[in-house]
């Protein structure tokens, strides 16, 4: 409730407050576990066993942990895709659509130039993915800067359009002889290299590098300063000669490009094939992560990790005890509800 | 193309637009009180699935509609707890609610996938019943369709002609000022969310119980988002929402016409028409919308705690 800087004289009080908040947090985590446990009981599963399984799987061994990292990759990227425009006060809800378009552009590259060697094909696909995502974000940015329509609503609508375009392309042109709802498997040169003998691919490293670059640029560069100025008070920034519309359009494109990269990484690294409706709401989840962590790089990393643990654990439950993926969504949503309804332990900034 | 097929397209366009009108009205109410609910999609999914499951279990479609409306209201109250009591960010909470809707609706509807139900009975208007049976069967609508436009007028009356509506709009413009003049912003917002959720629930019920008569996951297919867009299109006015819903119906009709006339276009591309049209209309109508939005939209009301 108060954002005032803490004074040393209130040190004891603050400690007490933090404990109060933490205990409230703990209570709510317990609430999530209990509610979800009830859902598990209703579906005839043993909740304690399930929770134990999730924990043992994700933290108990390298394979499970590597799966957590695998599912972190697209989320880190889509969260960045939201966080960067949000520094200007732009609300990019369109990560989902940008991801799809990026994936379809990259797939076009993989299918058309499949005889190129890997050192040429993969950069090309990355470029295409970036281009596709940026294009899909350019439109909302342009509309916004022309004052036509708010980027929140235009990105939302474009989200609904993108998967249908992918479906059109796959069913119409790209599908493999066997399945109509996916392309043929990509050739080996079109697959992102894997690391550490696991399913983690190089896009995780790219995501971390981008996160670090984002932190550095926002903090130490002139662009970062100007962007923060626009985000703080766009009118004042304009009076100081910062070109608003240029920043709006460019940063939307940068965000879209990163989401497009996430799409490229999904088809080239994770699936190795373009599936119709392949994304499980990664774009939306990235939005949530970015806003939950106020666009802060470390916060993005931590929140992504938590969400990924929940998702991976949920996938495990789905495989081992036949709990539908829907239940994973519920667990995820409950977790998000708790984090959203957080006690005021973090400073409340507008992200 | 015969008159009959054109009328058939018109009839199915009315069917598909009705759910949208209800949910747009619902979103209009809570946006007027200053709350954006991007999770309308989730609310609609939960309403559609629970209404359908209830109808399938009991065989009573009207009760199913009631259940759907109540479910929508309750889900919106959960959202209200987050954004009003816990002062969470509205956009993020909305998306979390959407994920909740995906999950919960799939669980609720799991047992009723592929089940047959008694749909909402279709009632014939006297002067339509006199027509040839081919035509009259096309324009035999269910109660929810007949009530859709009156509902828009009801919402308009509520928002603009009653004391409660005045208070609600005041809260949406400036919650602190409304508080100073003796309103309770938190309570009014909860009431708005409850009512809005119930309306969205009605729309979803129409979708699953009357229109498609089935339940499948993600069956709302972005209607919740279109409803949010239509609220902006209608400049936060319930009567203009009728126009918005007609626009959507028109897009669907156009899409169906193209399909039935045998034009060789991928159905996936045709599916994008309503979204593209909504976007285009928003762009064309741009500029003039700026001052129509409630001034306090999306702002957190801190009450006396600040």
Entry summary:
With 351 residues, chain A is an all-alpha fold.
If you had to describe this structure to a student in words, what would you say it looks like?
The complex is a heterodimer of chains A (351) and B (306). Chain A is 73% helix and 0% strand. Chain A is mainly α and 351 residues long. Chain A is globular, with a radius of gyration of 21 Å. In chain A, helix 1 (11-42) packs antiparallel against helix 13 (325-340), helix 3 packs parallel to helix 7 and helix 5 packs antiparallel against helix 10 (244-271). Chain A has one domain (9-340): ABC transporter involved in vitamin B12 uptake, BtuC (Orthogonal Bundle), CATH 1.10.3470. The relative contact order of chain A is 0.18. Chain B has a single domain (3-112, 146-305), classed as ABC transporter involved in vitamin B12 uptake, BtuC. Chain B has helices at residues 3-32, 40-58, 61-85, 90-109, 126-129, 133-138, 143-161, 163-173, 175-180, 185-211, 223-233, 238-260, 267-271, 273-284; strands spanning 122-123, 141-142. A two-stranded antiparallel ribbon of chain B has the order 1-2. In chain B, helix 2 (40-58) runs antiparallel to helix 3 (61-85). The radius of gyration of chain B is 19 Å and the shape is globular.
Q: Looking at CATH, which topology of chain B would you report?
A: ABC transporter involved in vitamin B12 uptake, BtuC
Low-confidence stretches of chain A: 343-351
**How many domains of chain A?**
1
The ordered H/E elements of chain B are HHHHEHHEHHHHHHHH
CATH class of chain B: Mainly Alpha
- Separation, N- and C-terminal Cα atoms of chain B: 65 Å
| Span between termini of chain A | 17 Å
Poorly predicted runs of chain B are none
CATH structural fold name of chain A? ABC transporter involved in vitamin B12 uptake, BtuC
- Form type of chain A: globular
What is the H/E string of chain A?
Answer: HHHHHHHHHHHHH
């Amino acid at each position: 409730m108060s954002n005032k800087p803490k004074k040393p004289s209130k040190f004891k009080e603050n400690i007490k407050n933090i404990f109060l908040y933490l205990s409230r947090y703990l209570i709510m985590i317990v609430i999530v576990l209990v509610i979800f446990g009830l859902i598990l009981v209703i579906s005839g599963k043993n909740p304690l066993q399930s929770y134990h399984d999730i924990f043992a799987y994700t933290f108990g061994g390298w394979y499970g942990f590597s799966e957590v990292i695998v599912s972190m990759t697209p989320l880190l990227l889509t969260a960045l895709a939201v966080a960067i425009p949000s520094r200007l006060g732009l609300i990019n809800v369109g990560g989902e659509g940008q991801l799809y378009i990026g994936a379809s552009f990259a797939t076009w590259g993989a299918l058309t130039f499949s005889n190129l060697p890997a050192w040429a094909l993969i950069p090309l696909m990355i470029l295409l993915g970036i281009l596709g995502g940026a294009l899909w974000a350019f439109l909302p940015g342009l509309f916004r800067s022309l004052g036509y329509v708010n980027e929140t609503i235009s990105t939302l609508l474009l989200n609904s359009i993108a998967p249908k375009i992918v479906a059109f392309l796959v069913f119409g042109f790209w599908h493999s002889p066997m399945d109509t709802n996916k392309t043929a498997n990509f050739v080996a040169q079109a697959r992102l290299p894997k690391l550490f003998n696991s399913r983690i691919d190089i896009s995780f490293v790219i995501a971390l590098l981008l996160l670090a670059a984002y932190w550095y640029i926002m903090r130490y560069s002139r662009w970062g300063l100007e962007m923060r100025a626009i985000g703080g008070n766009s009118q004042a920034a304009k009076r100081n000669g910062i070109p608003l519309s240029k920043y709006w359009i460019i940063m939307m494109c940068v965000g879209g490009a990163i989401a497009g990269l996430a799409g490229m990484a999904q088809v080239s690294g994770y699936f190795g094939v373009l599936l119709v409706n392949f994304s499980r709401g990664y774009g939306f989840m990235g939005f949530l992560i970015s806003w939950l962590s106020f666009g802060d790089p470390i916060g993005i990393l931590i929140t992504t990790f938590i969400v990924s643990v929940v998702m991976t654990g949920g996938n495990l439950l789905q495989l081992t005890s036949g709990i539908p993926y829907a239940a994973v969504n519920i667990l995820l949503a409950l977790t998000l509800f708790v984090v959203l309804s957080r006690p005021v332990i973090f400073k409340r900034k507008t992200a | 193309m015969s008159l009959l097929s054109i009328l058939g397209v018109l009839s199915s366009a009315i069917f598909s637009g009705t759910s949208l009108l209800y949910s747009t009205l619902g979103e209009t109410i809570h946006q007027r009180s200053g709350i954006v609910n991007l999770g309308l999609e989730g609310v609609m999914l939960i309403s559609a699935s629970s209404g359908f499951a209830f109808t399938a279990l009991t065989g009573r479609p009207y009760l199913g509609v009631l259940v759907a409306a109540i479910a929508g209201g309750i889900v919106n109250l959960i959202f209200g707890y987050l954004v009003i009591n816990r002062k969470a960010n509205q956009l993020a909470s909305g998306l979390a609610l959407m994920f909740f809707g995906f999950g919960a609706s799939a669980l609720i509807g799991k047992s009723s996938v592929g089940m047959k139900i008694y749909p909402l009975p279709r009632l014939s208007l006297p002067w339509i019943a006199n027509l040839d049976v081919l035509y009259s069967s096309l324009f035999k609508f269910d109660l929810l369709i007949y009530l859709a436009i009156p509902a828009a007028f009801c919402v308009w009356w509520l928002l603009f002609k009653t004391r409660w509506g005045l208070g609600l709009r005041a809260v949406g413009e400036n919650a602190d000022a409304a508080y100073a003049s003796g309103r309770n912003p938190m309570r009014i917002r909860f009431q708005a969310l409850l009512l809005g959720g119930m309306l969205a629930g009605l729309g979803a019920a129409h979708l699953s119980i009357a229109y498609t008569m089935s339940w499948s996951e993600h069956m709302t297919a972005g209607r919740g988002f279109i409803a949010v867009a239509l609220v902006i299109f209608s400049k936060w006015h319930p009567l203009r929402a009728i126009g918005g819903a007609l626009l959507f119906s028109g897009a669907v009709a156009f899409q169906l016409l193209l399909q039935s006339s045998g034009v060789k276009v991928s159905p996936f591309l045709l599916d994008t028409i309503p979204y593209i049209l909504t976007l285009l209309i928003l762009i064309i109508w741009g500029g003039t919308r700026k001052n129509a939005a409630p001034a306090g939209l999306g702002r957190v009301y801190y009450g006396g705690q600040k």
